[in-house]
Amino acid sequence: MKLTEYAHGGGCGCKISPKLLKEILADLEPIADSSLLVGFDQSDDAAVYQINDDTALVATTDFFTPIVDDPFAFGQIAATNAFSDVYAMGAIPLFALSVVGMPIDKLSTDTISSILQGGRSICEVLGVPIAGGHSIDSPEPIYGLVVIGKISPDKIKKNTDAQVGDSIILGKPLGIGVLSAALKKNMLSDEGYKEMISLTTQINTTGARLGEMVDVHAMTDVTGFGLLGHLKEIVLGSNVGAEIRLSSIPFINTAKRLVRDGVVTGASSRNWSSCYEHVQCFDEMSAFELDLLTDPQTSGGLLVTCSPSAEEAVIESFREDGFTSACCIGSMGSELNKIKITS
After folding, report:
1. In angstroms, rounded to a whole number, what is the distance separating the alpha carbons of residues 78 and 96?
2. Which residues of 210-239 are buried (b: 16+ CB within 10 A; e: fewer)?
3. What are the E-state strand segments in 30-78?
4. What angle (nearest 5°) sits at the alpha carbon of residue 209, between those of residues 73 and 199?
5. 190-200 helix and 176-184 helix, angle to the nearest 10 degrees
């Protein structure tokens, strides 16, 4: 069996839908602590805990089932995705812990070791040690990391601080979920697979530099809830609106062709059901374009709001790190809690 055949879904497409997650957490009251600057009640990418006037710890965990069949690549993608949450806060990672769940009666020790080696290779690139972790015997393969980082409290980039008039910058093109679905259906070309690996292992290190920019106001990464789902979190959390231009949004060309042929993920419809009340589409917008805007991204790009005067500098920071598709896709507006999509 292929690695992906052991899982009911793959990558961030396995995330519980935002609507259902909200119901699950509805009665879970946060425990008050004045040092906890960002907690789960804020729907942000990571928790932030202040240690002193100059330092806060950033903590996150992210794990999922296989999105590809190559175990080493699976480990790389999962690790890259986990680090993204720390970079989305504008922080610098310090160390990591492994989260491992494997069907040990079905996968060889070589396969499991290769997954962990893939994750280690990303940590090695970043100079971040893996300090330990935890493992269980589980029916589906699961791998990811706990990542601990640090940041100055006054430089935290939350997803609740967007301002009216801000430019919206997207760091990576959309369509990873479609490529993943095509892979499971044996419909993904070699070229499409290479592009998929390249994008999902591209580390969002730009976030640490953006954390130093005072004109960058809000930041998150686009993962399992799709572009519209994560932009909705910014809109609701910041109590503003947003207007995005469909023609400006970067899409993976292979994904655009596949989605026209009907290749979509189940998570796409779940994402739409969780955000449609806050979205206004233009009349000529097609169903396949909406599928791409709600497509769950695994190890997706950073979504940034910044002052218009900083737009060029933010995009240049992305380009310097090899994010050639980074661009402005719209702006934050004053129509509260609404995302307007124009042509």
Report:
1. 12
2. bbebebbbbbbbbbbbbbbbbbbbbbbbbe
3. 36-38, 47-50, 56-64
4. 25
5. 130
- Tokens found for residue 159: 């997803």
CA distance 45 to 189: 33
CB 136 within 8 A of CB 189: no
Superfamily, domain 3-155: PurM-like, N-terminal domain (3.30.1330.10)
Q: What is the CATH number of domain 167-342?
A: 3.90.650.10
The 10s digit of each residue's pLDDT in 201-258 is 999 999 999 999 999 999 999 999 999 999 999 999 999 999 999 999 999 999 999 9
E strand spans, 70-141 = 92-102, 130-137
- Positive or negative torsion for Cα 238, 340, 270, 178: negative
C-alpha span between 262 and 291 (Å, rounded): 10
β-strand partners of 145 = 62, 98
Q: Is the pTM of this model over 0.70?
A: yes
Lookup: tokens for 169: 């910058």
Q: Give domain limits for the chain.
A: 3-155, 167-342
Tell me the catalytic residues. Answer: 12
